[in-house]
Amino acid sequence: MGKEVLVDLSHPFGNGSPLWPYFEDVKIERMHYMAKSGVLSQKITTVMHCTTHADSPGHVFEGGLFTHEIPLTSYYGDAVVWDIPKNKWELITAKDLDAANQKLPMKAGDIIIVHTGWNKYWGDNTTYFCYSPGLGKEAGEWFVAHKVKAVGVDQQALDHPLHTAIGPHGPGPLRKDVCAEYKELTGHDVMQDFPEWEPCHNLIMKNGILGWENVGGDIAKVVGKRCKISGFPIRWYMGDGSIVRMVAFIDENDLNKVPDRVYKYGTQ
User: Fold this and answer.
1) 261, part of any domain
2) pLDDT digits (tens, 9 = 90+) for 8-66
3) In-domain check, residue 268
């Protein structure tokens, strides 16, 4: 065995961070700077559902737990990182999860990180947010039945984009053109194929399973591996979610031999 190493599974945060379609832009202001005050102090205005983040149940349904009510153990544990490659608008099915579980078995109480490969489109915003593959009711039922601790995805949400307000749900459709494109491509109205609003969110959160969205960073180094995962929130009273620094803990000899990811922003 080699030494344990830490692998960053987080997208960078800062000015210009990609954002889900109905959120205001990140705003970072220098309140003090060297020429003015001899120190640097910055003020950040942001939603917490930005870059790699955790959702709290209180984000999804009334009466759900908020960030300060969730034990730290819920954000850390043994994990499997499943490779389930998917293309534009494809659903991750129970059959997909069964196949991944056969290849790299999970145990009850494990964290599951689902790698579809979509994280590579981070920064190509229409593709990443609107055309993503994703989870739905079937996957949510699978996670509940298999007693999963938490789920992380390398896509825009814990649900397929057309199960969200990008489609005709909640305050949507935020992108009527995307819904029209889906109908032109498939011959179906979005509501025929995606009739429920965020079914996976609701199923897992109401059954005590936490979720992370926009998993990225150097995830390619741990795809197909068993490791430990942490993705801790800030200690936010009444928080509906939180930006996290997600980390995989793994033996250096078990890493996939791939280059470090380099982002077009956030690396200066």
Assistant:
1) no
2) 999 999 998 999 999 999 999 999 999 999 999 999 999 999 999 999 999 999 999 99
3) no
